[in-house]
Amino acid sequence: MRQKIFITVFLTILILPSLAWLVIKASHNDNLISHFEYDLGENRALATMPEDVELASIATDLDNYYSDHVPFRTSIISLNNKVDGSLEDLYRKGIQPALISLAGKESGSTSGLSVAELTGKADDSDSGKSDSDLADETTVVTGDHIFEVIEEVAPSCTEDGYRVSQCLDCGELVTETIKATGHTAEAIDVVEASLAAYGRTKYQCDNCGYMWFDDFEDKIIDDSYLPVNVVNNQVIIGRSDWLFYTGDNSVAYYTGENVMSESTMADRLSKMQDLQDACDEKGIELLYIIFPNKEQVYPEYMPSIDIVNEDKRVPVFAEYIRENSDINFIYPLNELMSAKIYYDTYFPYDTHWNNWGAFVATQAMYEALDIEQTPIEQVGVTKIDSYIKGLVATGALDPEKFTGDYDYEIDYRPIAGSVTTLGVKGMMNGYTTTYQSVSNTKLTDKDIVFLGDSFRVSMIPFVEKDFNFTTFAQRENWEEISEAILDTDVLVISAVERFDNDIFKRIPSIAKYIREN
């Protein structure tokens, strides 16, 4: 009897949630369904039922599918995250500081760079107005001459104007310079220095709309000792609650522990050169880009981790490439660090850069390709709320405790447009999808093929306006756009730093394809 009761209770516990979920779904009550099922911000597609049965992986595939489709999945995960997050919060903010104090730890190894170190200057001002000393009269009596203005070009903020006068009696001509007026400064965005931001003011000229930054102040740096807190074995909770990813050996890139041997660098350079030679034969301009991991750009928010080697993996390889080849390669760390004194370039709660970071990297790419660039001061930037909070979900953290994430809307060439022909470019759905577009108002007649990872998605809105024909694809899917590669003018192969190994898996097959077709 006891065994029958146990079996009945067990089956009820096993089956009842599924039955309840079916009833809720069948009710078609959107409010009720959304209460239990909502977007966790995982930045990934849920597992699908495997179509092909492979004995080696079927158990894992089915487990992944049912884990992603269990009844009340969202509610269960959220409740678990809240409980775990509350305990983690209590430890980090209550118990851990007391333990650090008892241990006598006072400072850590976190570093933050000053405005002068990031930009090479402390004052970026273009302001200042000068008035012309010339009168506005159209007729001026000078000695025996009576001059009348016959031609005048008004000065602008930055360029002198001139005035041509002629004597009414003798016809003598006199040309006078009217000095540039200088910009009229109006503060349109003021940020005070804090733990979260560099202090600076953005100005805009009332007359011509020119924008510039000035009145810089260094960010306040917390250099107190902060132990490494890793949650869910994947996410570091840093200073000011910034989150960093530990996967793909990211920490070793940060500490400098994984610098390549010279033989490895030589082998990789040989692969790069082989693709370069193949592109040269077809008249394709080739550019390699490695984008910095977030912690390289924001060491000030990392916990107290000792840097083993200041000469880190990618910068060492970049120097090796420069010394031993003419290959076009960039690692835009300096550009992304310098730009963060204006606006943050990466998300606090995600591994990716935001729209501002993507714009800055795009301009660095244009410089490497000798394409017209837009000064970063001359675009309108509006701070907006962000839904990209992937590390909150990855770390199984309570999203209610991580609400300060944000992005920026970049007003870049607003009159430019494109005609989309294929694909999705959104951050949530465009990670692996090929995307192509044709520009109506291009900066260059060149076509571009861009192979990369998820970091490429935020660059699309800028690049597609500027190139004649644009193709973006995930590196491993390059064969889907192989014909576009043969027809393109520019080929860019990129990876975020922690995926740099993947570039060299693709290069030989791409080089072989280009050479044989």
Can you describe this structure?
The protein contains 15 helices and 21 strands. It has helices spanning 2-27, 30-36, 58-68, 73-103, 115-119, 250-255, 262-282, 294-297, 313-324, 333-339, 355-368, 390-394, 460-466, 482-487, 500-516, and strands at 128-129, 139-142, 145-153, 161-167, 173-178, 182-183, 185-191, 199-205, 211-217, 230-231, 235-237, 243-245, 285-291, 329-330, 380-385, 406-411, 418-422, 435-439, 447-452, 469-474, 490-496. The chain has a seven-stranded mixed beta sheet, sandwiched between helices. A four-stranded antiparallel beta sheet has the order 2-3-4-5, with no helix packed on it. Helix 13 (460-466) links the parallel strand 19 and strand 20 (469-474). The model is unreliable at 123-136 (pLDDT under 50).
Task: Please name the defining characteristics of this protein.
alpha+beta, SH3 type barrels, 517 residues, 21 strands, 21% strand, seven-stranded mixed β-sheet, four-stranded antiparallel β-sheet, 15 helices, 35% helix
Q: Topology of this structure?
A:
Layout: H1 2-27, H2 30-36, H3 58-68, H4 73-103, H5 115-119, E1 128-129, E2 139-142, E3 145-153, E4 161-167, E5 173-178, E6 182-183, E7 185-191, E8 199-205, E9 211-217, E10 230-231, E11 235-237, E12 243-245, H6 250-255, H7 262-282, E13 285-291, H8 294-297, H9 313-324, E14 329-330, H10 333-339, H11 355-368, E15 380-385, H12 390-394, E16 406-411, E17 418-422, E18 435-439, E19 447-452, H13 460-466, E20 469-474, H14 482-487, E21 490-496, H15 500-516
